[in-house]
Amino acid sequence: MRKSLPPGPGISGGVGFLRAAAAGKVLEFLTDLTQRYGDVASFSLGPQRIVFVNDPALIEEILVTRQRAFVRDAGAQLLRELVGEGLLTTDDPAHLERRRIMQPAFHRARVARYGEIVVGETERITRAWRPAAPIDVGAEMAQLTLAAVGAALFGTDLREGAAEIASVLASVTERGGALAALLAFAGPILGPLRAAFPNRASLLFPRERARLEAIVAPLVARERAVGEGDDLLSLMLAARDEGGRGLDDAAIRNEICMLVLAGHETTANALTWTFALLAQHRDIETKLHAEIDAVCGARAPHVDDLARLPFVAHVFDEALRLYPPAPAFARRPTSEIELGGYRIPAGASVFVSPFVMQRDARYFANPQAFVPERWADPTQPKFAFFPFGGGSKMCIGEPFARMEALLAIATIARRFSLQRTDDRPLEIAARGLLKPARPVVLAAVGR
After folding, report:
1. Alpha helices, DSSP H only, in 203-343?
2. Which residue, of 1, 101, 148, 348, has the greatest Cβ tally within 10 A?
3. SS3 breakdown of the chain: % helix, strand, coil, rounded to 5?
4. At what angle do helices 282-296 and 398-415 cross, to 10 degrees?
5. Is residue 177 helix, strand or coil?
């Protein structure tokens, strides 16, 4: 017997989705969809079938066990227009080859060496904080993560270009939500358009792409002139495929743009949410301070301390659970498949959402509450929590991002209590990456 399509609101759902995208409420739309129609639900967006999956076992099928049956969806097309063909935007076999080239820079021993840089950059930035003066936490964390990713991964200082990079990202984010919804509807037309204009670096973000490349091109030129180093840029310049061919300058610039984008803003957002939550829960902050004091005393934290700072990790994981930087993404099956007992047509957009899944009461008691202690003995299925994705396309920088975030939290919390300056609740700006709707302004009170 032929399987049926997943249940859902049909064409009216597509209209609701577009309205939600325009209002920045896609996450609310997806939450309502799964509550009304179950763990596999669908609707029509013009000729495009959209399927939303909210079940850990099925998410694991999509991202891991049957990952080769899927390719990246409209979000990757959008990102490709900004950072070009690279690790975050390609599919196999190109993706596997590029990952093989870049993976050595993220091995455990190498990541551990980056820790000293992260602590040093955090201390440098916090030295400018005046006692009890309000700070824009998001802006400070962006400055920190840009400096850290530049120094650790590229052996250079990106602080001078930080403001311009941040400006580029803000410009893209502002338009990204609406464009993502449009591509979900009209994504198939982008391929022919790109084929018609093969020499254009970007059809959607030409000025932003040019500005990013102007920042990173000198890094490549300088590294080629200086010679071999021990950072990711040096590894990419030296890497060769089986035929002895290396990456050209355009490919390397694409990967640098990708890593600056992915390795900077996502971690900055996660740290901003973490300190915003701690400011609202002083009892949890007190417990965090006690652990850091017991382990580090009067000295700065070190990467070797992280194994003895479990509550710091629990705090960060709970912030990631509530506010995953990438709240939703999609894959497309290359041929018709069965998923959860339903027929999924080839080319359908199959969405999964860390944000919706990680707030599901079936797997997390009191799911809207900030409870770091829940991570001391987690019981949920593996893919009830997947802020970094999964499978071969899981974020390659996850070890670096986690190390960076935990050391930044420990370094800041050892010296400061970041306290609220008003009583307004946290609100989400859910276009693209998950960011606070307004700046998080906290007072840096010395301890």
Report:
1. 206-226, 232-238, 249-280, 282-296, 310-322
2. 148
3. 60, 10, 30
4. 90
5. helix
Burial 353-378 (b: 16+ CB within 10 A, else e): bbbbbbbbeebbeeeeebbbebbeee
β-strand partners of 51: 42, 350
133 phi-psi bin (left φ>0, alpha ψ -120 to 50, beta other): beta
Share of the chain above pLDDT 70, in %: 88
Q: Which residues of 100-110 are buried (b: 16+ CB within 10 A; e: fewer)?
A: ebbeebbeeeb
Q: What is the Cβ-side half-sphere exposure of residue 217, based on CA atoms within 13 angstroms? A: 7
DSSP state of 103: G
List all residues 6 or more positions away from 195 whose beta carbon is below 8 Å from its beta carbon.
none
Q: 70: left (phi > 0), else alpha (psi -120 to 50), else beta?
A: beta
**DSSP H or E stretch at residue 319:** helix 310-322
Residue 153 to residues 65, 231, 285, 393, 410: CA-CA distances in angstroms?
A: 31, 5, 31, 20, 21
Contact yes or no for 353/27 (Cβ under 8 A)? yes
Predicted confidence (pLDDT) per residue in 253-270, tens digit: 888 877 777 778 889 999
Give the Cα separation of 325 and 408 in Å (integer): 17
- Which of these, 317, 413, 310, lies nearest to 371 by C-alpha position? 317
The single-letter code of the amino acid at 190 is L
**Between 176 and 46, whose confidence is greater?**
46
| pLDDT greater than 80 at residue 42 | yes
Nearest to 306 by CA among 212, 415, 230, 411: 411
How far apart are alpha carbons 150 and 82 in whole angstroms? 19
Residue pLDDT, tens place only, 417-432: 999 999 888 888 866 6
Closest by Cα among 355, 322, 332 to 432: 355
Q: Assign residue 132 a region: left if phi > 0, alpha if psi is -120 to 50, beta otherwise?
A: left
